[in-house]
Each structure stands twice: as C-alpha cells, then as structure tokens.
Design a protein that fits this description.
InterPro entries: LOG, LOG_fam, LOG_family_nucleotidases. It is an enzyme of class 3 (hydrolase). Helix 3 packs parallel to helix 8. Helix content is 52%, strand content 12%. It has a seven-stranded parallel β-sheet, sandwiched between helices. With 242 residues, it is an alpha/beta fold.
Length: 242
C-alpha cells in the first residue's frame, strides 16, 4: 500500500477541515455568549465581594461557620456576595448572604464531580468554561476573601494577584482568612519568590491575613469608601488627555 493510499483524499480533508472550523466557531460563540449573558445578569450586582474556598469543606467544619459569618456580615453591610455556587465553602458563603440584606450570587461551573449548585442563591449563573467564570469573579467584585481551599482556590487567588500586579485590573483587597492554613504559603513566598528575586517585596502587600470576620468587613468597607473607585493607569492617561 502506497503513502497516498494511507492519506485522506483531498476532498475528504477539505470536508474534515470545514467541520473542524464549524465546531471551533460554535465553541467560540458559546464562550462569547457566557460573557454576554453573565455580564447582563451581574450589572446590577454592586458593590460585591467574591469569596473562595474548598468545595470539600463539611458543614460542621469551623471554616464553614466562619465563612457563613463573614458572608452574613458583608451582606448586612450592603455587599452582595459572589461564590462559585457549589458545596463546601461556596455554600457557606451563599448561605450567609442569602439570609442577609444583599444578594447571594453563585457562578456555577459544570464539572463531572464535586460541583453541584447549592440552594442558597438569589442569582445563579452556569458556566462551561473556567476562564469566562474567572473574569466575572474579578470584574464584578471590589474585594476577595480567600478561605482555605485546593487547586481551584489557589488558581483564583493567584489569578487576581497577577491581574493586580500587572495593572490589568484595579487594586483591591485580597484577604486570606485562616492563619494556620495560609502562614506556610506566605513563608514560602517570602523565602523563595521574594528571596530569589522573582517578585518584589511590596507585591506581598497585596495580600492581607485576617481571621476576624468583623475586621474583614471593616477592611473592605474602608477600601470601598476611600479607594474603591481608583482608576486604572490607562484610564488615568485617558483623563489627562481630555
């Protein structure tokens, strides 16, 4: 059998490419639709705080109760609370806000395991793609509260840090709650990232380690009152050129 016998015929290759392009175009359209639909739904949710943490935290764990208390205080203070909409810490965040005065928002992701929508959502959105979901977490929040969690929680936290460090989004409080859990990571950042010159020492100031729920709310409220409307560098440049 010759090589030409083993390769697809030209007409078949063309048809295959057309099918591929059609699938990719449809895939892109689905991603764009997630951005458009979620932006429309969330435009009235302001001010808001995003809370992250593990989907595996049981309801009788102290971090679950702590998250619920933080979310309730934020909600009663006038902040909508945005979580991933699933179980564990996400459920605790939605639950605290649900029984408060401000909206409880869940940005749910379709996963084969772990993720199932919790029942404490005033507004529930569904995403198929992590990156469009992450954009909504950052775009519609003026602060992050990061509870103990796994890869997903770390991904969200470092994504926010990177966007702020590089000036791609406004500076906002990123509060780590859980001294026992986060202290080791912060020590590693000081020893390896700062020690090896991979980040600047002042970059660590983007993170705050606070365990007291009332202090967390006061920190966010102070930021909202004094710096919540700080313009991005390119926005300041545009204003100067007017």
């Amino acid at each position: 059998m010759s090589l030409s016998d083993k390769l697809p015929q030209t007409s078949d290759r063309y048809a295959m490419m057309q099918r591929f392009r059609s699938r990719e175009a449809w895939h892109v359209m689905k991603i764009l639709s997630e951005f458009v639909e979620s932006a429309e739904e969330l435009q009235q949710i302001s001010p808001a705080v995003s809370i992250f943490g593990s989907a595996r935290t049981p309801r009788d764990h102290r971090y679950y109760k702590l998250t619920e208390d933080i979310a309730r205080l934020l909600s009663d203070a006038g902040f909508a609370v945005i979580s991933g909409g699933g179980p564990g810490i996400m459920e605790a965040a939605n639950k605290g806000a649900y029984y408060g005065n401000s909206p409880s928002v869940g940005l749910n992701i379709v996963l084969p395991h772990e993720q199932r929508p919790n029942e404490y959502q005033d507004l529930s959105l569904k995403f198929d793609h992590f990156f469009s979901r992450k954009v909504m977490f950052v775009k519609h929040a003026l602060a992050y509260v990061v509870m103990p969690g796994g890869f997903g929680t770390l991904d969200e936290m470092f994504e926010a840090l990177t966007l702020i460090q590089t000036g791609k989004t406004r500076k906002m409080p990123i509060i780590l709650c859980g001294v026992e859990f986060w202290s080791g990571l912060l020590d590693w950042v000081r020893q390896r990232l700062i020690g090896d010159g991979l980040i600047n020492a002042e970059d660590l100031d983007l993170l705050q380690l606070i365990d007291d729920p009332q202090q967390i709310v006061e920190t966010i409220f102070t930021f909202y009152e004094t710096r919540g409307f700080e313009a991005l560098p390119e926005e300041r440049e545009q204003l100067l050129n007017l």
